[in-house]
Structures are given as structure tokens and as C-alpha cells.
Amino acid sequence: MDALLLQILNGLDKGSAYALIALGLTLIFGTLGVVNFAHGALFMIGAFCAVTFTKLLTLSHKVVDETRKDFLGNPMEVDVPYIYDWFGQSTGDAMIDWAVPLSILFAVPVMILIGFVMERGLIKHFYKRPHADQILVTFGLAIVMAEIIKYFYGANPIPTPAPAAFAGSFDFGAMLGFDANTIIYPYWRLIYFAFAAIVIGIVFAFLQFTTFGMVVRAGMADRETVGLLGIDIDKRFTIMFGIAAAVAGLAGVMYAPINSPNYNMGMDFLVLSFVVVVVGGMGSLPGAVLAGFLLGILESFASMAFVLDAIPGLNQIIIYLVAIIILLTRPRGLMGRKGVMED
User: Residue 163 and residue 310: Cα distance in Å, rounded?
Assistant: First the structure.
């Protein structure tokens, strides 16, 4: 039972990332009809927003410290972050420690701006082009974005620690009545799952209960009729592209302490997340979220030692096997809509 619970927790952790990225992919496809293969790169850029914000907070200048002497007895020069000058040392240390959560404030406007530029500068020219053209151009854009990040940040992963308050692990076993230290799980992974649930809830509530969201949903169902009512649906869809980019970026920001950001991490998640979208059903937001968590849990169970002993490498292909089975039995995916990508 303890191994079962641990694998479910691992699955929810992976599924949270899959669901967030797949949600953004589905938002873009459902509104604009564009298959965006650059979405994984947006996830990667979000992670580097956390890296950048952390570096900004730690920018420093030299100050002579009279209390510290070198071997000749002269006062030493020490690096003092600028943030100490502005907020004091205790507040500055707290802000540096909480750099990853605080970088959300930095990442949201940056990701929305990137989304607007992508949509207005490139994507809009491919609305009426075949999906194959959309895949090629957005995949090429993803490669360009990855190489830009590699140029400025290097090829090596950059450790981005979580706040010290969440650096430890939570003893699930003791809480559930098992022996102590039976089920230990990192706090930050639990935070990530809770964060993903909140973001997903906000997106669904925004689409379901706001006038803007209702117009967008109507435009997804019948774009021409909404346009005939005098509503600038294209402007709203551009905003939705920015929101989708922000969702992917937030997923990357909070994932940075789990997997040290590197220029290739977007590609690692892109293919898996696209499979999640297809399994859930192209254009179905609930399907994307459901498939994300389902496939995350299945991948976690396939990574167990006794499973790998029986079928080596199963954890690497389980998602694709499940996708094949589901698409053979339900060609539109779990919750796909009739007519989506069937022309």
C-alpha cells in the first residue's frame, strides 16, 4: 500500500506538468485551430524566467567590510546584493530565498508579451494553412528559442532551489497511520501539484463564468457567427494565446526547483504533452487535464522496479502504448469533439 501511494504521488507530480502544458496547447488549438509545437519552448522559457529573476535579485556590488581582514590585515571587499541597499539585509535574504515563487510576478507579463508577439508576428499568418505547415513552422520556432536560451545561459542545467521552508520532505506515512519514514515525499512537489490544481481551476473558472470566457467558448464553437454579432473575436483569441503562453510559463517557473532548467527541457515535455492532448481529445480542455494526470500516474507505475524487471524500458513507452490503445478504440480521444481535425 505504501508503494502504491508513493507512485500515485509521483504520478500526480508528473501529471501536473503534463496537464498544465497540455491545457495551454489545447487552449491555442481550440481557439485558433493552430497546432503549436513551440509550446514546450514556452514552458522552458518560463523556467528560465525563474533563473533570470533569481540572478536579478542577487546582482551585487563591491563594498569594503572593515570587520573582515585579508592575510595582510587590510579590509576585504565583499559582494553585497543591491537588494540589501533597497530593502535591508533580512528582507533581501527572504526575497532571494523565495525567488522562485516571486518570479511568477516577473514571468506572467513576460510570457503574455511573448505570446502576443508570437501570435501577431508569426502564428496569425498560418491560421488557414494546413496543420502540417503549422507544425513545421512552430517546431522550427521552438528550436530557435532553445538555441537563443543556450547562447545566453549555456548548455548546462542551472540549479534553481526552492525556498528553504519547502526544502525538506513530508512524512505521509505517519499522517496515514503507517510507520514513520515509510512514505516520504518532497514538499515542493506537493506545492507544485497544488499550484497546478489552482491554475487549472482559475482557467476553467475564467472560461466558464466570465463574459470574456463565454464569448471565447462561443467563438471556439462557431467563430463566424460570433464575428457576425460585431464581436472582435480575433482580438480575444490573441489574448487567449497570451494566456496560454502564461499558463505554460507558470508551469515552467514552478518546475524549476524540481528539474534544473536547461535549454532542451521544452523538447522533453513537448512530445509527451502533445500525446496527452491527442489522448484527451483535440480541442477538449477537460480531456487534456484528465489525460495529463492519467498518463502521469501510469508512467509512474511503469517506473516501479519490479515492473522494469519484468518489462525493461516500459516507463519510456507506456504513454505511447496507452495512446495507441485509446486512439484505436476511441479515435477522437477520451473527450474529443466530433469534427476536430477530421477534415
Answer: 39
